[in-house]
Amino acid sequence: MQIRDYDWSEIVTDLHRHGMERADICRALSGVVSDSTLRAYVRGVQLQPSHWRGELLLDLWCRRTGKARTEAPTRPAHLDNYCERRVTKMRIDVSTSALDALDAVFRPGIAKILRGTGAAPQESHTDMTMTLPGFER
C-alpha cells in the first residue's frame, strides 16, 4: 500500500485554473493563508499546510471546482521528511561546555549533602536547602 498525501501545489494551481488569483484565494480564506505561503506550496518549498489550513484550502477547492474531496489531487507522501524534521527539533546540546556549566551549578550542593553538612538523608526533600552560586543569602 502506498501512502498518499494531498498535492497542495496542484490544489492551488487548480484554484488558479478556475479563475482565482492568489489574492482571491487569500481573501476567500479570510487571510489565514498568506500569499507567500501559497507561493511556497506552489513551488514545493512548503509541502504541507497545518491541518486546519489544509482543511480550509481543501474546502475552498471543493466549492470552487465542484468536485468531492476524494477527487482532490494527491501525490505519494514523503514520510522521511516528517521524521527528519521531528528529530531535528529534539536535538539537545550536550557539548562539554554545557555539561561543565551544569556540573559547576550542582556540584557544590551535592558535595554539601555528601559531606553531611547539608540536609541529612533521612530528612524529607522539602527540608533540604540548596542554593545556586550567586544566590546565597
Largest sheet: 2 strands, antiparallel
* C-alpha-based Rg, rounded: 28 Å
- Broad structural category: mainly alpha
Shape: elongated
How far apart the termini lie comes to 66 Å
Instruction: State the helicity in percent bands.
Output: 40-55%
User: Helical region count?
Assistant: 6
Summarize model confidence as the mean pLDDT.
77
SS elements, strand count: 2
Low-confidence stretches: 84-90
Strand proportion, as a percent range, falls in under 5%
- Indicate how many domains the architecture comprises: 2
- The SSE order reads EHHHHEHH
Strand order of the largest sheet: 1-2
Could you explain how this protein is built, in words?
The structure is a single chain. This protein has 137 residues and is mostly helical. It folds into two domains: 74 residues; 46 residues, no CATH class. Helix content is 53%, strand content 4%. The chain contains six helices and two strands; from the N terminus they run E-H-H-H-H-E-H-H. The chain has a two-stranded antiparallel sheet. The longest helix has 20 residues. It is elongated. The termini are far apart.
Question: Which key phrases capture this entry?
Answer:
single chain, 137 residues, mainly alpha, two-stranded antiparallel ribbon, 6 helices, 2 strands, 53% helix, elongated
